[in-house]
Amino acid sequence: MRTLIRNGTVVNAGGAVAADVLVDGETIAAVTAPGVFDTADEVIEAEGRYVLPGGIDAHTHMEMPFGGTSSADTFATGTTAAAWGGTTTIIDFAVQAKGTSLLSTLDKWHEKADDHCAVDYGFHMIVSDVNDQSLKEMESCIDAGVNSFKMFMAYPGVFYATDGEILRAMQKATETGSMIMMHAENGIAIDELVAQAIASGRTDPVEHGLTRPPELEGEATSRAIQLAKVTGAPLYIVHLSARHALEAVAAARNTGQNVFAETCPQYLYLSIEDLAKPDFEGSKYVASPPLRPRDHQADLWRGLRTNDLSVVSTDHCPFCFVDQKEMGRGDFSKIPNGMPGVEHRMDLLHQGVVAGEISLARWVEVCSATPARMFGLYPRKGVIAPGADADIVVYDPAAQQTLSVETHHMNVDYSAYEGMSITGRVETVLSRGSVVIAGGAFHGREGHGKFLSRDLSQYLV
Ligand code: URP
Ligand code: ZN
Ligand code: ZN
After folding, report:
1. What residue owns the CA closest to ligand 1's atom 3?
2. Which of 1, 128, 354, 403 is 20 to 30 A from 64, alpha carbon to alpha carbon?
3. What backbone torsions phi and psi does residue 267 show, to the nearest 5 degrees?
4. What is the pLDDT of residue 331?
5. Ligand 1: which of 57, 151, 239, 275 to mutate, most ligand atoms within 8 Å of CB?
6. Reduced to 3 states, what is the DSSP secondary structure of residue 8?
7. Does residue 379 have a cis bond before it (omega within 30 degrees)?
């Protein structure tokens, strides 16, 4: 089966060029000057459209247990929503519960995901129980294609790791060339502030933001960087939200340390004002780190331009307003942490192109090429080039759409971006050569997505 995508503008991280793309089976066979091939089994007309490598969302949580409930998207619904939004690969987090092993965790996550995903997927591993066995098992995870390990400086009693535990895991990462991913917030100090707020009757969702000040993200980020320096471990700061943390990352990168960071669309577009919405509406925006005052956003956009922020992921972790977010009525600390977004990352970052915040090529770089390199998937993923998987998005940059719960495909009963006008829209999506989105309809299937056993990060020398 050969598919020709013709007369489009192919956009890679290196720039844009008028070109045709020939797909043969599951991979890209050729990228040529327009008109070199004139027939194929199927022809997709892409005049006036961008032709992009499929998006890679390196931070999602499907079916994730959290705070006595579970995130609302299954691997089936979440990857289908991803496909609608032009994301053809997700990397989700397997979550080690305390007292269990990393390998049994990995098996469990394979059971949840295998034969259910609509697009390709990989795993990171959350290490919440550092001991001799789990440190040893990190090696087996790497052999199984899972070579990035998330740790938490937040959530004492749940995922929290002490500095000593982090140090030990970082030593193992150094030994194996694997990556430590860090949730960098000072959870011990935050828990004090939370307890004080609740005790004094301050229970609304906005307190979630006020009790997690940006300084405590900055402090934890700096501490993680120092621990990484002492051990020599590669470090990737997840969901960076505050300029304080960005400054620490930039300073480390200026010294040549292997420190990387991602931010998420919610930190670029939403703010603590959303958390302060009345009638418990603010609960829809509870995630950690919290949404920040609006003036952090310009710093984050600058960080994306300077590459101190290398990746944009969604941290997609949806909880419905009814019954799930509502668990925290009267006590904001019981609101499950997380927001939906896997469907909208490509569109929201395209708004950054429209607004002149980032270039067209940078859009593709932060949403596809860099996550592919960062997590050992390049050049199979993240590029339109011969030999790459035919994960391709045909994007109409002039289309207008309005984001809404009425039209999105995520399994959640609200949109964090309700009513937002977007210029640009995903028109056609191919996943390994199969058309999964076209003509405003889903043509994919549950189980089409394959597990991606990943190589080590390609940024490490
Ligand atoms: O609030 C968030 N971010 N929930 C998902 C878990 C995490 O910390 O990434
Ligand atoms: Zn986190
Ligand atoms: Zn997360």
Report:
1. 288
2. 403
3. -80, -20
4. 98
5. 239
6. strand
7. yes
Atom of ligand 1 nearest to the CA of 154: 8
> Which of 128, 150, 288 has most ligand 1 atoms within 8 Å of its beta carbon, as the pocket-test mutant?
288
DSSP code string of 67-102: TTEE-S--HHHHHHHHHHTTEEEEEEEEEPPTTS-H
Task: Name the token pair of 418.
Answer: 């309700």
Taking the CB of residue 222, how many other CB atoms lie within 10 A of it? 18
Residue 309: CB partners within 8 Å, gap ≥ 6?
Answer: 240, 246, 249, 261, 262, 263, 300, 303, 366
CB of residue 338 inside a 6 A radius of ligand 1 = yes
Q: Which amino acid is at 25?
A: G
Share of the chain above pLDDT 70, in %: 100
Which pTM value belongs to this model? 0.98
Per the structure block, which two tokens stand in for 79? Answer: 């990857």
What single-letter DSSP state applies at residue 284? G
- Containing 218, the helix (H) or strand (E) segment is helix 214-231
Average pLDDT of the residues in 116-137: 98
* Confidence at residue 43, expressed as pLDDT on a 0 to 100 scale: 98
State yes or no: pLDDT of 67 exceeds 90.
no
- Specify burial of residue 193 (Cβ count, 10 A radius: 0-12, 13-18, 19+): middle
Residue nearest to atom 8 of ligand 1 (CA): 288
Phi then psi for 396, rounded to 5 degrees?
Answer: -95, 105
Residue matched to tokens 């259910």 = 116
